[in-house]
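User: For documentation purposes, I need each entry recorded in a consistent format: the amino acid sequence on its own, followed directly by the corresponding structure tokens. There are two entries in this batch. Please keep commentary to a minimum and don't merge the entries.

Assistant: Recorded as requested. Entry 1:
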Amino acid sequence: MEHKWDGDLVELNNPLPSWWVNLFWITMVFAVVYLVLYPGLGQFQGRAGWTSFGEYDKEVEKAKAKYDPVFNQFMGQPVEQVAASAEARDMGQRLFLTYCAQCHGSDAGGATGFPNLADKDWLYAGDAESIKASIANGRAGVMPALGAALARTAPSRSRTTCSRSLAPTTTRAWQPPARPCSKPIAPPATCLTQRHGRDGRRPNLTDKVWLYGGSESAIMRRSTRAANGVMPAQLQALAKPRSIS
């Protein structure tokens, strides 16, 4: 049978280029050597004894040798002294942009549901040890859904008006009522005595800072629906407790 069809279609039997053939045989030899040295054939672990855990440990030791001297110079210093160092602040900025900016923003200004770290308002205290505890161990802030529980106590709009009357308004279109609700009893006792304290300051409802928004609709939504604010623990990611300072 001739290898020719329709006059123009011809099947040829040209040999492959020698460089291609040699490269093929080199690849085959490399594959055999690789499978002898490294795991790749079922349960056979390879003659070289390589493991991913061992490789990880080597990288960790290499990183420790490189970075430990940098961190150790700040380990025994108080936070105030560390904060005075330009080198430490630059390191902290890089850590912040890596681990914190996704939630709190690159300027630390926060967003809805994520606290502003650039002001003087702190949910869990602003001293150095409290901040370090928040970063290392995380926080879980829960606003339970109280719509059903409070439905018979006060209408949603009434509770919202009471909440907003505790704090200076940040919305021009709204003004506090001429006779704001009594702070000891409103918002309803369930909010003040069980959640925010009788003075409304835990978390603070008497300032202009609103974690989930200070509009009437936002407050009404938070007073009737649940809100779960979670600060994930960063101790394992940052490895060294002092590095979170």
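Entry 2:
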Amino acid sequence: MKKPTIYLAGAITGLTLKDMRLWWDTASRKLHAHGFLILNPVNTSLDTDSTTREIVANNMYMIKQSDILLVEMQDRIAPSYGTISEIIYAGMLGKPVIAWGDSSLLGSPWIAEHITHRLPTLSMALDYLVGNYNVTY
């Protein structure tokens, strides 16, 4: 029996590794403490030499293997097209998508229709996951 696997989705382009990891590390620690398994697209051997096809194929594979997506949606100057794509892909696969943040993009019909639940902060999203998806199967 295992706990659900959570894929961490969020902006990467234009951020430093430190900025990217800030919320991922916090989420991973809390979710691991409750027995969840974590899939993080940054924790692969893919790098700046990888092709876009490799990156997208890897992310799609990881999303298929996950049970739930936890998505960071902070407002930025430029939207994260990869994150938007991951939301829609996961939603079309029937995966629960839990989003947190204040992005104005969350009001877009295509994004809103593929998000299961939306919360303003990471802490609230983590509490929601632990309270609603902390099951063993």
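Summary note for entry 2:
Residues 32 and 38 are 7 Å apart (CA to CA).
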